[in-house]
Amino acid sequence: MAPAVVVPEALRRRYLGTRGGRSWLAELPELVDASLAAFGLVADPPGAAPWHGHGALVLPVRFPDGTPAVLKCPFPHPEAATETAALALWNGKAAVRLLDRDPAGTCLVLERLDPDRTLLTVEMADAVRIWGSLVRRLSLPESDSPHWAAIPSLAAHAEQLSDELPAEWDALGRPFERWLLEAALQVCQTRGAVGRRSARDVLVHADLHYANILARPGTPGDYAAIDPQAVFGEAEYAVAPMLWNRLQDLDPSAPEEALLARLDGLCTAAGLDRSAALDWSILREVTNALDYVRDGRHGDAQRSVWVASALTGRRHPGIPPLEELPAA
After folding, report:
1. Core-most of 2, 12, 73, 248, by most CB within 10 Å?
2. Which residue among the candidates 44, 201, 207, 227 is catalytic per the annotation?
């Protein structure tokens, strides 16, 4: 019998470059077939082509009683490991509902949202408002639930970066100015475990960008977050992806000022501290720039340097104008 799915070519290209990726791709059709049988699901409609995001195959399915859902099979990577715990903690409030999963967490059954209605095409003012409402509801304080054990500490991550970033910057040939590296290191010191207000720590969706917010079918204005990369720390850590995406919507005559105005709007909508959001966003984009340089993605690295520099209020030499940089 033919497998239930054919892996989309874009997903294949993304993971063919590593041994682990090739192994996952080879096992994916059989994994989907086994999961359909284990959960009692059928593809909807039969023979439906799967969807995919950056790191997962998603198949529309139905339960025997006709309830629509999706079967999600993520590539096994550290960020994906927090998804099940975070979705269980949110329990469908402002996030997609987790309906079932296998014991190993290799496949999840999720509520079906509308993949064609994201915040990518919503007017920016409305997108900011919807995002802010979700952040307020997703920011859960720690409880006695055992799911918290799977959520890593953001402050500890910042302390780790304070050691790693200088060595990586040097090893990669010092790809941007030292003052930008120092701005990121200052964030590590001020937002890390020393001298910070841990009472503000909450559950944070660290990848809450426009494409990871989908509408619930049949409920106008009701949106939910998907694909969490969860951390426990300051809610302001969630802001950065909303800054580095949709850069083409910034006022081309003054893009740096427009980026800071977007930051202000996001903080107002979500009730966040602007200074903390600015700090975390600088650190995240400096870290992204180094990751992109390591991967040979120099256009993406320049975009991250542009964003981080704009947030510091300075212009970095040698970076092309915004309209010449690749979109995120």
Report:
1. 73
2. 207
